[in-house]
Structures are given as structure tokens and as C-alpha cells.
Amino acid sequence: MTHHAGSPRPRPRAAPATVRRRSRRELLRLGAGAAAALALASCGGGRPAFPFVGERSPEGRLAEWPLPRAAPRAGRLRLGVLGRRAQGDATLPRQALPLVYSCLVAVDPRSGIVYGDAATSVDVDEEALAVRFRIRRGLHFHPDANGLADALTAEDVRRDFQRRRDAGEFLFVEVVRGVDAPTPEELVLRLRAPFSLLFEYLADASRAGIGHGRSYAQHDAPVGSGPFIPVAREAAGDLLVASSFYHRAPLPRLESVAFLRVGDRAEFADAFALGQVDVLPGTAGRGPSTVRAGARRLVRPSRRLRGLGLSLLPEKAGARVRWLPAFQDFRVRTAVSRALDRSVLAEAGDGEQSGPVGPGWAADALPRDVLARHPLLRHDPPSARSLLEEAGYAGLSFRLEAPAIEGMGELGQLVVAQLEGGGFRPQLVLREPGDWLRSFEAGDFEATLFELEELATPDAGLRLHTSGGVSGRFSPWGYSSPPYDAAVRRVLGEIVPERRARQAREAQRLLLEQVPAMFPLLAPRERVDLAAAVEGYEWDGFAFNAGHLAPLWRVAAPPAGTS
To answer: What distance in Å separates the CA atoms of residue 302 and residue 458, rounded to the nearest whole number?
Structure first.
């Protein structure tokens, strides 16, 4: 029997027939909410009308990012692309897509604010099933060889979205039921069900960048309307130049962006050191950059997660698994949590403390000060020992498994020492990563440390704690809380990012009150090195920086008298 933290949970209705089953790893990459929101869409009642998106944007108008004063375009930013170009490959590098294509909207993950791009306003009906956009006037696609640029209207957007539907793309097959363009400036998306990630997907140029019916001369890609135009393709890379037809005048600030193909990370670092590229992602080590003189190093929390999970049930998905009955007692789980010093673990693991939603999704995550003050998360070994004794489990012994990957052994030793200080007797067992993963995905462990790769959407962290887990089949911890599941369904049914973020924070507070069976520990940090001349690069904005803020990037001219 599943261990419940409250009354019997409501059963979500079946997913629409168009939703195909996906593996747990696929769901994490895709964004768990993509399937989950559809599967849970018919739960719950009506929603209030959508009066506006973004701060100070009345009457449905989308927020607008402030534009700089007009100034002559200058400079070329040089970016690297991992992997050699195959012979005959005429595709654009993925990193170029948000520079070439406009989207309807852009979403800042730091605030949840939705900004207008090709659209200037949006309205959502009460059931969150019809989304009406007002298309910006005066939009143009990139010009042809004769310098003539076609106008971009709602009908062009409809045709391009139909092209994506015909190609079987997820957003336009499984989320969007139909697209209408009643007028040249009006576009209506009709959804199969409320979809909490709609605006994030529409802001992704690889999923919803708006393309023309014709293609570029040098690239096998539909003509776009973004800030840069692809003009050259070679084995060594690609060149994009500023578009004079871009609607956010006076942007872009750069004259051009060049992409250099590199064979591997070592070659990437060499290219940065030699001044052949200006941005080096994935740099290791704390402290300032040592790869290139004058370079700046930016740091942000990644969207990976390291955590500690406890097994509450002897059977999951119909299979017998390892578990520990003591973990069903919320006092024991509370003792585990209070034994941990998360600030020490985060610093040792070169990361930042994480709640259920990681700090890489700042709008949806619980703020750092809330995590620091929460009674469940405070480091209090005496309280942990008292709770264990009160529950009758003083000196509780259990196996703490972990994959034998970089950094996990050190983290495991720290966790063991802290748990011992709280009155537990854990035995750390490092396992071959493949064997560990099979046990982890089956929920077959007493307790385990884990690292999850990129959690592609903010709801993934919430769904890890639901009765069905990310896959919707079962919780790897055996944990179930009907009130929390209901709170997550409300999150998945809210398509306005700012409102979804508020509900996500409420759901996380509820989860912590009910003492979950999995405790997020830290989000490892990641770094990027920038050439000293690069300005306007807001790396903590993730895709928002690479897309909507990219036209604001600048390469400053060297001081007079320098070469």
C-alpha cells in the first residue's frame, strides 16, 4: 500500500490519445510538464481571465525590454560550436536559431515576466484553451537577393506553425489543437488542454521560431525575421550580419556574429585563449579566468540537481524493492533533514542550496532566504537526535548508495558524517553508475544520493515529489501526498508564467510542511569566460540571454592607442 501523507488522492484523468508515452529520461529532457500538463489538464475548474502578462502591462499588453539610445552598430562577436560540420551539412547551428528567428514572445526565467517579440499583446480565455495574440505592425522577414523584404503577418505565423505540425513537432501536434489568423494582426492558438509551459515553448526559436516559406541561399533553413541574417557558410563556421529590418530598432548593437566550428572542448579552450572566440562556456574551477588575459568569469547555478532520497515502500510499480519502514515516520525524515548542513554541502560541492525547484529557475524557486529560515531545512543535530529517540529509532542504520561519479564520493562522505552527528548510522556504498541507475529508476534502494542531469523545465523539480513521479507511473521514493499532488496539478494548469511561479512556490511550501522523502541538496555551479570587450551578456538569463537579450550584446572597441 502506498504511504499517504493525507486523504486518498484524486486520480488524474487519462491523457488525450495524441500524447505518446515517453521514458523518464525523455521527459526530463523534454520538460516533464509537456506530457504532465496534458495528462492532468482536465482536473480542476475554470480559471480567471488573463488580464495581462508582465509587470505594468495593462489591457493585455506584453512587457517590453528597455531599448538603448541609438548608436552606430559596431563589432563582431565570435562564438564557438562544438563539432565539425559534416560534408553537405547546410543547417544553421542551434545557437544561431534565436539570433535568426523572431518568436511571438520571450520569457525571463529570473522573473517569469513575458515580453513581446513578434506579438505585442495576449489574452487567454477563462478555460486557458484559447490564446489570442496581437501581432506587431511593420514586421518583415529578412530580405531576398534583391533587397526586398516580405511583410510578416499573422497568416505567415499560422502557415509556419502548420508546417511544424505537418512535421510532427510536439508543440503543434500534442499541445496546440489548431491555429487561426482571423486578421493580419490577430493569431489564435487553440489548445488541447491548459499547458503550463506554453509561453516558454513559444519563446524557444527551435520550437516556435517564425519562418518564411522560402529558404536562405547559403543555409537549408526558412528565412527568419530576427536580429541577424545568415550570409555565409563554410566548413569552419557561419557568419551572421545585422538586419536593418529588425523590429526592435536601434538593435542589434553588433555588426555581426561569427560561429567557429571546433572539434572538442580542448580545441574550444585553445580557440578562446588565442582570441578566435569570445565566449568559453563550461569552464572549470573557482576563481578568475586563467585561460585568457583580461577575461571575465561569470557564475550561475546550473539546472542539475544533487539530492538525497529515502525509500518508503517495499513495492513500486508492482516490483519488490528495498526500503526502510522507519522512513515512513515523518519524525525520522525530519531528523534526516535537520542533520544536514546544506550550506557546507553546497560549498563543498561547488553549488548553491536548492529547494524542490532549483535556483536556475529563479522565478519558480523558493528564494534563498526562505530556504535558510525554514524549520525543516535548518541544521540542528540535537533536534535530529531527539526526534530519532522520540520515534524509537535511535542509532538507525541504513545503506546510503551513490553512483561512483566525480564528486559524489566526497559528497557522500560529508553526508554520512553529518547524519552520524544527527544520530544515524549510515553506510556509504558507491556503485558502478549503470548498476546504480537501474536501481534508482526502479526505486530499489534504502537511501540514495543522486545527480539528475539538466532539468529542462521548472515543473520537473515539482513532479519529482508527486505520487506518480516524473514519468507519471510511480514515485521512486514511494511518497504520496494528495494535497501536494493537487497543488502541482494547479501549477500544471496555469499557463501564465508569473502566476505559475507563485503557485509553484506555494506548492513547495506545502511540500516542506508535509516532510517529503527526497531532499534536494544543491545545484552545481557552472561558469562561462567572456573576453574583456564583451558587454550586455546576462548569462544568468539562460535562453532569455541567448535570444531576446542577444541584440543587446556588444563588443566594445579597444581603447585608443591599443591594437
So the answer is: 12
pLDDT of 5 strictly over 80: no
552's torsion region: left (phi>0), alpha (psi -120 to 50) or beta? alpha
Give the pLDDT confidence score for residue 454 in this predicted structure.
83
In this structure, which CATH number among 1.10.3470.10, 1.20.1250.20, 3.10.180.10, 3.10.105.10 belongs to the domain 3-30+302-525?
A: 3.10.105.10
Instruction: Give the pTM.
Output: 0.88
Given a cut of 50, whether residue 57 has pLDDT beyond it is no
If residue 511 lies in a helix (H) or strand (E), which one and from where to where?
helix 497-513
Give the CA distances from residue 557 to residues 45, 244, 254, 534, in Å, rounded to whole numbers and listed in that order: 57, 22, 11, 10
d(CA 266, CA 470): 35
Give me the helices (H) in 274-423, please: 330-339, 342-348, 368-373, 381-391, 408-421
Q: CATH 3.40.190.10: which residues of the chain?
A: 76-281+533-555
Average pLDDT score over the chain: 89
The neighbouring-strand residues paired with 228 are 242
Amino acid residing at 497: P
pLDDT digits (tens, 9 = 90+) for 290-300: 778 899 999 99
